[in-house]
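Continuing from yesterday's entry. The apo prediction looked reasonable, so today I'm repeating it with zinc ion included to see how the binding region is handled. Same sequence as before; SMILES copied from the compound registry.
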Amino acid sequence: MKGQDQPLEITELDLADPKDGEVMVRLGACGVCHSDLSAVNGTLPAMTPCVLGHEGAGVVEKVGPGVTSVGPGDHVVLSWVPQCGRCYTCLRGQPQLCEMSFATALSGGLLDGTSRFSLDGLPVYQMTASGCFTEYTTVPSISVVKVDPDMPFDKAALLGCGVLTGMGAVRNTARVEEGATVAVIGTGGVGLSVILGAKLAGAAQIIAVDISADKLELAEGLGATDVVDASAGNPVAAVQALTGTTPAGMPRGVDYAFEVVGSAPTVEQALMMTRRGGTAVAVGVPRMDATINLSLFAHLFLNERRLVGCVYGSSNVQRDVQLYADLYMRGRLDLDALVSRTIPLDDVNGAFDAIEKGEVARSVIVFDG
Ligand SMILES: [Zn+2]
Ligand SMILES: [Zn+2]
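Holo prediction written out below.
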């Protein structure tokens, strides 16, 4: 990305060798995530020029000094939150908030704040210490997770962002229990992963809410028990109507509602859909100036609802990527349905158009060789 609101350009860049604790990865595949588009259109801040892409998988090409966790030839999934395992939040079981990586994400560089890409001697930044819309990238070794070399790259890549975020929101953030009722607003790649996670957790009812008939059909295929077309009327009433009534004749609402759109109205809807004592999880990436209206009386006091933030599915990257890769390889996790299409790198701008039109769960860039 040269600058905001400009189409991505394919350019030959210089890539420095990995420094201490870093690895160079030859990319096999990279998903095109809504957050890449958000970096282009300014919803998310980004340093420019920048190599976007943060949902990658590939093969370790070479390792820098001191790297023992992986070696050349290892197949890996790339994470966009380096997790140090030693800071205050990592030690308290919240590695998604690693204190070492917070500044890194904004710097456009790796852990030392500098990028490994350059053009004519000037730095080209890396999105979230990552940068995967490229044949080769160099990242911190703590950002890569070794996976089974038999796992196809286009499926493995999804573990790096969408699947980790959606499944983690269910398993780590909300901790949905067996028999729970769940609603999901927005059924793109992340929302569908919420459905996969809810199904795996044994949720009794999974209600998918979207405005796209195609995505709702996909949601049903992946385990949604009910679908609500949000363009056809009030989605809160529609979800409530599917969740039974209390002895007082009031609609009950769901135990958990996941908002995967990133807008204020849908976060408010998620909160309204939950039952008394229910939990709404804000998963979608909002604009930086977005705010919501919250009734302290109705939501927090009278009905003891919980509204929970969620970044990266509250995931422990090493633990969870390996778990989901293992589940996929054993046929327990249907990632195949999430890959709407595979494309060459040159088609990345077309993939952005497809996201804007709401056409796809995921376009995944596949690199040859
Ligand atoms: Zn993403
Ligand atoms: Zn940490």
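Comparison notes:
- The CA atoms of residues 59 and 75 lie 4 Å apart.
- The first strand starts at residue 14 and ends at 15.
Will overlay with the apo model tomorrow.
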